[in-house]
Write a structure and sequence with these properties.
This protein is an all-alpha fold and 307 residues long. 71% of the residues lie in helices and 0% in strands. The protein has eleven helices and no strands. Its cofactor is Fe(2+). Homodimer.
């Protein structure tokens, strides 16, 4: 008897091919080097110049935190490639997507690192030390099923798109803003691919797909959550409104649930109905937590500072 996951991947293949073709028709090629202000760069001490000092950075603390998190998240691409290649395979339409996605994602890390090093935005020695730690540790999805990978990547790509776009806006640097907007456009197309494949899976195996959506919505964490200093930087990013629980609820979870018609479906069995109920309870709880976060932020804003 054919393995259920293998059978599902095979049945999804026509949708994969259609969405790969859609992606290729919409994706706009771009060159990472075009987005880097090379003229502001200069040698470091190893080549007779001067090593980085904090005063070199043109970025505010929020932009530094956001760009470091975004870059280190992109740096773990070898692990991400392994995860999706293992789940989806390297043949046929699935393999075409794995290769295309990996190649496009690779540009993001290249461009972000070039920007930060050339502009001396952050300490390049510390950045490299953090990259080494993060990549050596790698990323482990926890043996997700193919359906769980599709649901997770839908959430993750949309979250990443928003994080990149908002980081650019708070950077106070037109070059960074333009670069991050370009990267965010890639991430949006990647999200659309995974979102559409999850929708196709719901038509083929509604109960199993709904259970996967439930598990990934409830258990979602960003792939960079294990990087050095992630927790501290995440707090800075949240307080700055780049990415917080309100954004996650309103602009990531809810739009995807609406697209998948999670609360409008009539094709679910008992397992799917239970999964949908679990999603509803979690989303309501997330909304309440986001409201409390907003109330705390408003209280801090209204608290006078005393000398």
């Amino acid at each position: 008897m054919e393995d259920l996951q293998v059978a599902l991947l095979r049945e999804l293949e026509p949708a994969v091919e259609a969405n790969v073709n859609r992606h290729l028709a919409m994706a706009q090629p771009w060159q990472p080097h075009d987005y880097i202000p090379w003229s502001v760069g200069r040698d470091f001490a190893f080549l007779g110049g001067e090593d980085w000092v904090p005063e070199d950075s043109p970025l505010n603390p929020v932009a530094k935190a956001a760009l470091v998190v975004n870059l280190l998240s992109e740096d773990n691409l070898p692990s991400y490639h392994r995860e999706i290649a293992t789940q989806f395979g390297r043949d046929g339409a699935w393999g075409s997507w794995v290769g295309q996605w990996t190649a496009e994602e690779g540009r993001h890390g290249i461009a972000l690192r070039d920007y930060l090093v050339v502009t001396r935005g952050v300490d390049p020695v510390k950045l490299e030390d953090m990259r080494m730690q993060h990549v050596i540790a790698g990323y482990d999805s926890g043996n997700k099923t193919a359906l769980e990978v599709l649901a997770y990547t839908s959430l993750q790509e949309l979250a990443t798109r928003i994080s990149h776009r908002n980081a650019g806006r708070v950077s106070n640097c037109p070059v960074a803003d333009r670069l991050l907007a370009r990267i965010a456009a890639d991430e949006n197309l990647h999200m659309v691919f995974y979102r559409n494949l999850t929708a196709a899976a719901l038509e083929i195996a509604p109960d199993a797909a709904m259970a996967a959506i439930r598990d990934e919505v409830i258990g979602f964490t960003m792939p960079g959550a294990t990087m050095p200093e992630f927790r501290e930087n995440a707090v800075v990013i949240a307080k700055a409104g780049i990415y917080d629980r309100r954004i996650h609820h309103d602009h990531v979870v809810q739009p995807l649930l609406r697209f998948w018609r999670v609360f409008d479906r009539s094709d679910l069995g008992p397992e799917g109905e239970q999964a949908r109920d679990d999603v509803a309870r979690f989303v309501a709880a997330l909304d309440e937590v986001a409201k409390r976060d907003e109330e705390k932020a408003a209280a801090r804003a209204n608290t006078p500072a005393y000398a």
